[in-house]
Amino acid sequence: MKPKRYDVAIVGSGFSGIVAANRLANHNLNVVLLDENIHIGGQILRTIPERLGTYTVSESDKVRKTGFRFIDNIKQKKITVMNQTVVLAIYPEKELLVEKDEKSVFTIRPEIILFATGARERFLPFKGWTLPGVISTGAVQILMKSSGILFSKKILIGGSGLFLFAVAHDFVKNGGSVVAVLEQTSMIGKLAYLTQVSHQFSKLTEGARYISRLLFSGVPIRHRTKIIEARGDRYLREVLTAKVDQKGAVREGSERIYQTSALAIGYGFTPNIELPQLAGCELEYEEGKGGWVVKVTDVLETSVQNIYAAGEITGIAGALKSLNEGALVALSILKKLGKLDEREFLPQFQRLTTQRRHHLNFGNYFNALYKIPDEAISLIPDETVICRCEDVTMGDIKNALSNGFHTPGAIKRATRTGMGRCQGRICGSVLYDIVAAYTKKPGSKIPLLSVRPPVKPVSLGSLVAGHEECEANTGSTLHRGG
């Protein structure tokens, strides 16, 4: 079966993806927008499907309103939107192997690829974090936005990062009760954020709105407070917390127990770079950008010609940066395809590049503030599960380190960490942190885990359907033994 051809394939429909798709479609390009979810818009713009009810999460802020406007525009334009579509691999000649609706597999061959694959949550494991009742902050928000339900009537939220407050805000807005928000970083560190106000005023007002709503609702906010242990027999019953110093060490005598059956945790985000890595794009390690990211030029082109990257995979810095890079990358692609001349391109490019620099500066501060200290990693108890799929503990990983396995790949082979169904998407970033903490090597000296197709699980039914369709179109058959 011949690959479907497009001018541009955009992988990911978050802010960068929808902005780029809109701008490219304005110039009569044949654009396909691919996303794993049932709708476009990414995490921030998730909405409840019409058949399930009314979307109740606040849409009052400017960023979300802008995003929803782009989504509405996409529906009016000649853009091929493929929801519930997973990109499994990328092959030579920029051919994408995709799975649609867990029913069929086929290929797409665009002239240009834009990776806008966003980021996923990262975690700091603790004893008991695998208990039923412990959930990620992202999952709590997905349940609210995509299904219109609360994970629990009452919840404790902990970890680090601004996202904790966004989730707590939406939880209260939807009628839930938040026991407390436990923030591992200090309030003093956040005050340094005021130096960014001149270029990031919307982030300040958004954060202030979240916190004021929580305080008005009587939600306690505890800074420099760490989750030590989740306790329970068959499900969560209570959570042990403690105050920590600047390095993440527990202050003796500061322990406190919260009675709760629901705990949401999150410790920031890590970029989804697997597909660009598989495509051979050069990566770089920068703590100010959130760790390993895709290296791009000023026009957001990767080291592989005609493959671009935008959004969180070029640096974790929030929705405004993603909006900016969506516009910038579309401008660059239009110039590349001869749809804009230098006179049209240059003024917009200069303006967007200046804005991008401000967003990167904010990201630099943000990622430094919420970096998990090495001391916090070294304090993870040996019995704590790190790889949930393969049941690998911290003790197993420390034993591998002591036996000379000093890279994530070597530890993976020695312990099976990251070999489960999630393919290291939960434990992978934790494993990097552990190796860095114990070897004292800079992140740039710790090699990435290898990536092979399929980058995500694929159903056998899809493969069979794809093979049968190929047979019907070409008359060919695969050799079957036996």
Give an account of the 3D structure:
The strands form 6 sheets. Strands 1, 2, 3, 4, 5, 6 and 19 form a 7-stranded mixed β-sheet that branches. This protein has helices spanning 15-25, 62-75, 137-147, 163-173, 187-191, 201-216, 274-278, 319-336, 342-369, 374-378, 394-402, 408-415, 428-439, 460-474; strands at residues 4-11, 31-34, 79-82, 85-91, 95-100, 104-115, 119-121, 134-136, 154-159, 177-183, 221-223, 225-231, 238-243, 256-259, 263-266, 269-271, 283-286, 291-294, 307-309, 385-387, 392-393. The protein has 3 domains: 4-119 and 270-367, FAD/NAD(P)-binding domain (3-Layer(bba) Sandwich), CATH 3.50.50.60; 123-267, FAD/NAD(P)-binding domain (3-Layer(bba) Sandwich), CATH 3.50.50.60; 380-450, Orthogonal Bundle (Arc Repressor Mutant, subunit A). The chain is an alpha/beta fold. The protein is globular. The chain contains 14 helices and 21 strands.
How would you describe this structure in keywords?
482 residues, alpha/beta, FAD/NAD(P)-binding domain, Arc Repressor Mutant, subunit A, 3 domains, 7-stranded mixed β-sheet, 5-stranded parallel β-sheet, 21 strands, 21% strand, disordered C terminus
